[in-house]
Specification:
alpha/beta; 7-stranded parallel sheet; 13 strands; 16% strand; binds 2'deoxy-thymidine-5'-diphospho-alpha-D-glucose
């Protein structure tokens, strides 16, 4: 992989992945990061990477829905492999306004696949990043495996499911070289504060209410973002073509327990005025429509075939994450202004 196209590299996981590849891994080529810079992107995330790796990192602002401009990038930059993160990623937004989810997640992925099909000699790998949400919701027992049937329950997960199917179909029909990964909830530095963990950290620091949907007993399987990145890179290098790999953290937690944990760690790091517990800020609000009850990933295939293991324990990963948000107040302030604030005011609770 000499010229790797990373789509959506200015978002949460893309940023961490580019950092991992250039700073920590055995990747020796060049990264071309293509991102349209939606509200969820922050190009400043990678400004030091731009300075430190001038010959191995290039950022180009472009929309994957614009096939012509992406075709030009494929040819000018002699792209030979792709890691596709770019997506609309927030379930709540997809419930309020699904349009961009259909455009970017389905049409955008379709465009990339068509460009790869036209250049099948040139492109060695298309790695597609997906989610465990495509499998729907679990009851009290069991895990999602690669054999679990797809049952998406919200517009975001339905759009990701559609994109997974397209990737698989392009492999089967046209023989393009693909791998797919379906991952559980990520957490860590650079996550946009509309998602549960950063939203709770930032609201708790400001003494604002901590909105917990429904009864707070929904379960997610949390994975530290760096562990996700090591898994992706392993699959890209060693995964069998046409295969899907599940990635999970073995870290199931009820939302309410997680929010309480965030409150307690923040109280320990930075006392609240009057020494009051931040747990007092927890506010149960109306449930998310179609809210999946439980996600849990079985990543035995990845562990056995490719010898990947998550390294971070949740207890240490969440502390690192909270410290990162405390130490990067400028980043928080920047993303907390403008369009995001307006949107939050309008859609904070379901009505
Ligand atoms: P994010 O919202 O933080 O970042 C998405 C990035 O894609 C942004 O930089 C945005 O500007 C870019 N983008 C959006 N539309 C685009 C377009 N039309 N053209 C070019 N760029 C565009 O998302 P994330 O949390 O980093 O998720 C990245 C990928 O991982 C997504 O495909 C998501 O479905 C998947 N995923 C996320 C999680 C998670 O917990 N965050 C878990 C499993 C899978
Ligand atoms: O499972 C993987 C998915 O994880 C990814 O595909 C998505 O891109 C990513 O956003 C994430 O989806 P979730 O919907 O699970 O993440 P979110 O952080 O929005 O919510 C996590 C849980 O917390 C969920 O059960 C809803 C709940 N929640 C969320 C918010 C934002 C609350 O109770 N209150 C909140 O304010």
């Amino acid at each position: 992989m000499k010229n790797l196209l990373v789509t959506g590299g200015c978002g949460f996981i893309g940023t961490n992945f580019i950092r991992h590849l250039l700073e920590e891994s055995d990747f020796a080529g060049k990264i071309i990061n293509v991102d349209s810079l939606t509200y969820a992107a922050n190009p400043e995330n990678l400004s030091d990477i731009e300075t430190n790796f001038p010959d191995r990192y290039l950022f180009i602002r472009a929309d994957i829905c614009n096939r012509e401009s992406i075709a030009e990038i494929f040819d000018k930059q002699q792209i030979d492999s792709i890691c596709h993160f770019a997506a609309e990623s927030h379930v709540d937004r997809s419930i309020v306004k699904p349009d961009t989810f259909i455009q970017t997640n389905i049409i955008g992925t379709f465009n990339l696949l068509e460009l790869v099909r036209e250049r099948s000699e040139q492109i060695r790998l298309f790695h597609h990043i997906s989610t465990d949400e495509v499998f729907g919701s679990l009851g009290n027992d069991g895990f999602f495996t690669e054999q679990t049937s797809y049952k998406p329950n919200n517009p975001y997960s339905a759009s990701k499911a559609a994109s997974d199917h397209l990737v698989r179909a392009y492999h089967k029909t046209y023989g393009i070289s693909v791998t797919i990964s379906n991952c559980s909830n990520n957490y860590g530095p650079y996550q946009f504060p509309e998602k549960l963990i950063p939203l709770m950290i930032i609201n708790a620091l400001k003494g604002k209410p901590l909105p917990v949907y429904g009864d707070g007993r929904n379960i997610r399987d949390w994975l530290f973002v760096r562990d996700h990145c090591t898994a992706i890179w392993k699959i890209m290098k060693e995964g069998r073509k046409g295969e899907t790999y599940n990635i999970g953290g073995n870290n199931e937690l009820e939302n309410i327990k997680l929010v309480e944990m965030v409150c307690d760690i923040l109280d320990e790091f930075e006392k609240r005025p009057g020494n009051k517990s931040r747990r007092e800020l927890i506010t149960f609000v109306k449930d998310r429509p179609g809210h999946d009850r439980r996600y849990a990933i079985d990543s035995a295939k990845l562990q056995q075939e490719l010898k990947w293991e998550p390294e971070e324990f949740f207890e240490s990963g969440i502390r690192k994450t909270i410290k990162w948000y405390l130490q990067n107040q400028k980043w928080v302030d920047r993303v907390n202004t403008g369009e995001y604030q307006e949107w939050v005011k309008e859609h904070y609770h379901y009505r």
